[in-house]
Structures are given as structure tokens and as C-alpha cells.
Design goal:
isomerase; binds phosphoenolpyruvate; 15% strand; 12 helices; TIM Barrel; 253 residues; eight-stranded parallel β-barrel; triose-phosphate isomerase activity; gluconeogenesis; alpha/beta
């Protein structure tokens, strides 16, 4: 049985005080309410809050994620944050390859592959984001494009390592737009990606890899999306900033 995820990506939102309240509310709700025991709730918070918020976790159903990392362990890289630093701050997951980082910070598949290696080397879990633009979908090249992102950033891993990666399929046209991929569109891509993983690693390995959907997930659409056979939960941006709504997403399995 694959682990299911409700993973939040706060992006560059929330002051320290606001974030503390939100983080505590979610951890308390997830602890006290009925959430499927196979669901992991992950909150991707701004880097300066990681160490402090990780100490607020009061249930093993909740983990904290960083939204980025630098692939080198230490050194003269002013302003960057390494994976050993994240680990020492209590971080278990690292979101990488988000389309915003690919677009605004020119992150390439190769650079993201280096981050994957750095995260796995420290025993943390990468949440590897991929997804096509609307133009690519309209051109009909979306399947090949997203498969290529997996090939370029993950296929250097051996079978043992690749099973430690969580994949988040996030069509760029659905991120922060209020437009959600239909459950059929999302399931179709997730199946294509799982088949792609199976073609390289075999079906058993592919069946062990959690693939999340991201793009305007809300409590209202989560149950239908998460009921699809190849969708193992969501990476949630906007709706993760509301404790009640995000907890309800976590209860949608
Ligand atoms: C995201 O940023 O990963 C995301 C999916 O955002 P939203 O849920 O707001 O579309």
C-alpha cells in the first residue's frame, strides 16, 4: 500500500506569528481528528521557520518540508541552504523542481537531479515536482515532456533510491489559477508516469512510488481526485494556508 500524502506548499506567505498559528492549528486538528492512518500530512513552510515549527509537531502523522535546497553540503554559497542544515533543523521532506523555481530561478532538470541526490544522501525525502505548460498540452507533447522531466532528474537513480522519491505532477496551467485538471486528466497523466517508471524499474517498483497531484486542490475537489487509482494525494498551495480547509483535504482519503 503506497503512502498517501496531503502536502502543503505555503510558498512565500505568512509571517512567523501567522505561520506558528496555522502550523499549530493543523497539527492539532490532524492529531485530534480522524485521518486515515496511511496518510502523511506534510507542511512546506518558509526556510526561516523550519527549526522552530518542527518543534511544534505533536503527532507522527505530521512532518515538515523545506521548499528548496542547494545541492552542495556546505561552503561558499552565500544565501543558500544545504540539506544537512535542513536535516539538523528537523526537516524530513524537501520540495524540489517546483515550476516557480524552474521558471523564475532557471532551474534545470540537471540541477534538480543534483538536489535529488543531495536529499537522498541525507536520508530525507524529495518531493519532486513536474508538469507541463498549457501550450505543451495544447500541442499534444505533454506526456513526452513530463516523462522527460522524470527521465532527466530521476532515472540515474537505482530502484532502491527511486522508491524513496515522492513525485508531484503539477500541470502549470492549474497552479494558483483556480483551474483544476479534471480527475480524468490527472489520472491519465499519473498512469503515464507510473508506466514510464515501470518501463525503467519494473511494475513492482513503480507501484511503490507515491505520485501526488497539484494544481488548485481544495477540500471540495480532493475526494474525487484522491479516489483515482494512480493519485496518491495532493501537493496543495493556496488551500494549505487555511487550517480547516487543509485538514479537510487530509481527511479526503
Ligand atoms: C503549488 O504551488 O504547488 C500548487 C499546486 O498551488 P495551488 O494549489 O495554489 O494551485
Amino acid at each position: 500500500m503506497r503512502t498517501k500524502y496531503a502536502a502543503g506548499n505555503w510558498k512565500m506567505n505568512m509571517t512567523f506569528e501567522e505561520g506558528q498559528i496555522l502550523f499549530s492549528e493543523v497539527t492539532n486538528m490532524v492529531k485530534d481528528e480522524v485521518v486515515n492512518p496511511n496518510v502523511k500530512v506534510v507542511m512546506g513552510v518558509p526556510a526561516p521557520y523550519l527549526s522552530s515549527f518542527s518543534k511544534l509537531i505533536n503527532t507522527d502523522k505530521v512532518s515538515i518540508a523545506a521548499q528548496n535546497c542547494y545541492p552542495k553540503a556546505s561552503g561558499a554559497y552565500t544565501g543558500e541552504v544545504s540539506v544537512p542544515m535542513l536535516k539538523s533543523a528537523g526537516v524530513e521532506y524537501v520540495i524540489i523542481g517546483h515550476s516557480e523555481r524552474r521558471e523564475y530561478f532557471n532551474e534545470t532538470d540537471q540541477f534538480i537531479a543534483e538536489k535529488v541526490d543531495a536529499i537522498l544522501a541525507e536520508g530525507l525525502t524529495p518531493i519532486f515536482c513536474c508538469g507541463e505548460t498549457l501550450g505543451q498540452r495544447e500541442e499534444g507533447i505533454h506526456f513526452d515532456f513530463v516523462k522527460g522531466q522524470l527521465t532527466n532528474s530521476l532515472f540515474h537513480l537505482d530502484a532502491d533510491a527511486v522508491q524513496k522519491v515522492v513525485i508531484a505532477y503539477e500541470p502549470i496551467w492549474a497552479i494558483g489559477t483556480g483551474v483544476t485538471a479534471s480527475s480524468e486528466q490527472a489520472q491519465e497523466m499519473h498512469k503515464v508516469l507510473r508506466d514510464h517508471l515501470a518501463s525503467k524499474y519494473g511494475q513492482e517498483v513503480a507501484d511503490n512510488i507515491s505520485i501526488l497531484y497539484g494544481g488548485s486542490v481544495k477540500a471540495g475537489n480532493a475526494p474525487e481526485l484522491f479516489s483515482q487509482p494512480d493519485i496518491d494525494g495532493g501537493l496543495v498551495g493556496g488551500a494549505s494556508l487555511d487550517s480547516r480547509g487543509f485538514t479537510d483535504i487530509a481527511k479526503s482519503f
